[in-house]
Write a structure and sequence with these properties.
By secondary structure, this protein is mainly α. Helices cover 53% and strands 0% of the residues.
């Protein structure tokens, strides 16, 4: 796919791109071997939480 084509999931991509960009910046700062924790990235957690609530899913650990 070239740069001029839009993805099929365009609305989803618009909402996730800023969060993923910020996550990428955070990943560059992580020391090697350190695990990624969503608590370190509250903006990503909030975005995913909104997506799950809209779809009717729960984000509870107990529901897994």
């Amino acid at each position: 796919m070239n740069n001029h084509q839009k993805t099929t999931f365009y609305p989803l991509g618009n909402s996730l791109n800023p969060a993923l960009a910020l996550l990428g910046q955070g990943l560059r700062k992580l020391p090697s071997g350190q695990k990624l924790n969503f608590a370190n990235h509250p903006y990503l957690y909030k975005g995913l939480n909104k997506i799950f609530r809209k779809s009717g899913r729960t984000n509870s650990v107990n529901s897994l």
